[in-house]
Amino acid sequence: MAMSRHIAVVGGGPAGLMAAEVAARGGLSVTVYERMPTVGRKFLLAGRGGLNVTHSEELASFLKRYGAAEPHLRAAIDAFPPRTLRAWCEELGQATFVGSSGRVFPKAMKASPLLRTWLRRLDAAGVVFKLRHRWTGWDAAGRLLFAAPDGPQAVSADATVMALGGASWPQLGSDGAWVDAVGAAGIGIAPLRPANCGVLVGWSDMFRTRFAGQPLKRIALAFDGHRARGEAVITSAGLEGGAVYALSQPLREAIAAHGEAVLKCDLRPDVERSELEKRLAAPRAKQSLSTFLRKAAGLSPAAIGLLQEGAASSAQRLSAMAPGAMAALIKAQPVRLTGVASIARAISTAGGVAFDGIDPTFMLRRRPGVFVAGEMLDWEAPTGGYLLQACFATGAAAGRGALQWLARRQAG
Predict the structure, then answer these.
(1) Fewer CB within 10 A of the end CB, N or C, for the chain?
(2) How many C-beta atoms surround the C-beta of residue 43 within 10 A?
(3) What are the residue boundaries of the structural domains of the chain, listed by start?
(4) Which fold has domain 6-194+349-411?
(5) For the segment 346-373, what is each residue's pLDDT rounded down to a tens digit?
(6) CB 406 within 8 A of CB 3
(7) What does 371-412 look like in DSSP terms, one character per residue?
(8) C-alpha–C-alpha distance, residues 403 and 7, integer Å
């Protein structure tokens, strides 16, 4: 019997759209179901910061960024590596360049031109979009159930790619609501947790009022053998920013295990401690302590405030410290963390469908013909292009898996 060869893609983010493209190119009839009024909303949000699509580092080092998930993602990324993603961007008229940090961006430095062209190409390939369709599970016959504008719908498909995302930025469409329905089908799911997220600190009211929103520039953060250089932003609840996100995984695990963690902040990573001590030994004369620290140590008001906050919490007088002790504090200011920011505010999500529940083609072992891609899977990675790269690569892998599975069924 001839098969209709129709594939349903549930989720209109990068992973889902890439699966749709691969499937359409392979000759399948494709329908994309998206719960929001438009597709690619989180993708567009990522573009506000320049759309860091991937990274230029050597592939072996690149793959290590995925930690324990590397063995499970390696084949997908080998098949759709950064150079292929860059070539794909070029096909859509969006040339890319490598920034000073090695990150790769489209020259337009935003997502909207890329997404518009991509959607036009998908439309030309016959991909159909069903918007405001929220997936709610499967019925007894294995049909996909949706809450749609015209009421509940049950949809049959020859294969399905699930790409419903994690649970960060839920207002953009990925709210993790799929967990209950997928778990009810007996599929193993690691709990969803915030990744690339801020941390919580019990600031004093005075510090919070004065410094919330202020940056800590050119610093280095250290925790449990991990170190990250960059910037952080003081918030009313704690700290956010690239340097914090880089350490969020070990910090999250430590806080979960012990209820707190102590982060060490090097406020002058480019200056040796001995040099700082020498500068701080100079006579202060009539300068205030803040003025002296600004001039002698090159500290910003926010950095000085952080030192004073730490001294107050430990009942020390900053002004009474010897130059050596002051230099040591500047190089390793402890900040006690009490938690991590909520998953809704995180850049990405850890946890998801366990890899032992899928086969090498990303098909669910308990649901033949159903494939999973993107942030729904149990992996995490730092910012820097690694997140989007894995979403695109697993989306392409799931699309190929669906094609192969349908081909085997038709041949059989």
Answers:
(1) N
(2) 21
(3) 6-194+349-411, 199-340
(4) FAD/NAD(P)-binding domain (3.50.50)
(5) 999 999 999 999 999 999 999 999 999 9
(6) yes
(7) EE-GGGBS----SSSHHHHHHHHHHHHHHHHHHHHHHHHHH-
(8) 9
